Every structure is written in structure tokens, then in C-alpha cells.
């Protein structure tokens, strides 16, 4: 099912309630996968694959859908929940709360999402990151 919310609905929602999201942390050889954004907010910045949980979706279903859409991985393992990140200022569009998960896969990711322009594994985080990448990944590499 595809959702196309009118802009006025979306703006009204963001003005009145937080939005629930999921983020995927894929680590390979002590490096974390990030995507460079092609769109605002944080255009040109690196972020984790992630997105909004839809009505009637579980967090796991949303995570699998988003990982498939953003990095082309259909068969993932959800290894653990990393944490909940709820800073109201983490996204300039509004209050987005994300639940981050550590995932794994036997396949390599591929860039297929129109919001991202490049995928890359990082040993050290780049300077320009958005959406709490630093806080989320710090929980993995303690």
C-alpha cells in the first residue's frame, strides 16, 4: 500500500504530534553503512537507512520494508534493538522519534532509493551526518 499524504495534512500532523520511525544500522568489518542524502533535510549529509512506520505496521515490518526500499536487501536479520532516539530537534521538519535496530545480511546493499545518492561503509563517521547518526552508532561501538 502506498501513502500519499497531502502537504497540508503532513504539516498539520507535524505541528501536533510526533512521528514514529525506524533506522537500520548495518555493520560489516567494524564499518557502518550510511547513505548520502539527495533531498532536504540534510541534503549532502550522511544518514542511516530509515523511515516512517505506517499505520498497521509493526516496527519489524517497517524496518524490513524500508531496508528493502532504501538499500535493496530483502533477507535481513534483525539482531537487536539499539535504542529509542526522541530528541524533538533531531529533524528540522518536526518531532520524529526513531527506534534503531542493528541488522545483518549475507548480501551487499545497493543504492536504489531516490532520497539517497551514494551508499558507503565508514570506519570513522564523516563530519556531515544527520538524524542522530553519531548518537545511534555510538551505542554500537561502545
What keywords describe this structure?
single chain; 142 residues; alpha+beta; Nucleoside Triphosphate Pyrophosphohydrolase; 3 helices
Mind explaining what this structure looks like?
It is a single chain. Helices cover 22% and strands 33% of the residues. The protein has 142 residues and is an alpha+beta fold. It has a single domain, classed as Nucleoside Triphosphate Pyrophosphohydrolase, CATH 3.90.79. Strands 1, 2, 3, 4, 5, 6 and 7 form a seven-stranded mixed β-sheet that branches. A hairpin with an 8-residue loop joins β2 (31-37) and β3.
Query: What's the helix-strand series?
Result: HEEEEHEEEH
For the record, the CATH architecture stands as: Alpha-Beta Complex
Q: Nearest-angstrom radius of gyration? A: 14 Å
CATH topology: Nucleoside Triphosphate Pyrophosphohydrolase
Specify the CATH homologous superfamily: Nucleoside Triphosphate Pyrophosphohydrolase
Which CATH C-level class is it?
Answer: Alpha Beta
Computed structural class: alpha+beta
Nearest-integer average pLDDT? 90
| Percent of residues in β-strands | 25-35%
> How many domains comprise the coordinates?
1
Relative helix content: 10-25%
Uncertain residue ranges: none
Amino- and carboxy-terminal Cα gap: 39 Å
State the shape: globular
The helix count comes to: 3
Largest pleated sheet:
7 strands, mixed
